[in-house]
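Re: weekly structure request thread

Next one in the queue (218 aa):
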Amino acid sequence: MDLFSHSWTALRTTVAELPDEDFAQPSGCTGWLVRDLVCHLVIDAQDVLITLVTPAETEPTRDAVTYWDVTQTPPTGDDPLDALTVRLAAAYEEPRLLKFHLDDVGSAAGRAAALADPAQRVSTRDQVLTAGDYLSAYVLEWTLHHLDLVAHLPDAAEPPAEGLARSRELLEKIAGTAFPASLSDKDALLIGTGRRAPTDAEKTALGELAAKLPLVLG
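Done, posted below.
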């Protein structure tokens, strides 16, 4: 629960500190500018709020690892929901409005997470998880999107080390095997999720795992 708050606060703080011109830069998400990604984070925050107030009575069907639907097909940016996000982001017109909305809804999502009972069962995407597992899964979501946010912004703050380490641990569980120790947590996440291609040396170090990548999480 603490790591969720730490990762989410770090991501929102990085957005808040971006100069306006950075919102027009490309992000690490295919087809999205930084402003589009920030708009997506607003929607993510809404999803967290909705899920945490949607209790479930049945037993959990997923946990922090199995929460994800995994494919090997990277997004193209042509998905209708992705296209809608781009249109919504453009409607804000000024970065300060996006910053305000993310701070407003994002702060509420952070408070809701802090107040949640980790054992409480919640429902989302027709699945049931404990609130603790749901928020643990979102550490990976926040960390990957933090990497997306700063992909082309060398002066922006990167994700916290604890979030990177925990996200690598989750991705390794999803993969069913560990990534080579020679890869940093950041590189394991970028390569593992298809955000960048491995070098020849990295591909050799990955061995049989290379054929299973990327792990595209949805």
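The beta strands are 70-71, 121-124, 127-130, 216-217. The longest helix spans residues 95-115.
Next request, please.
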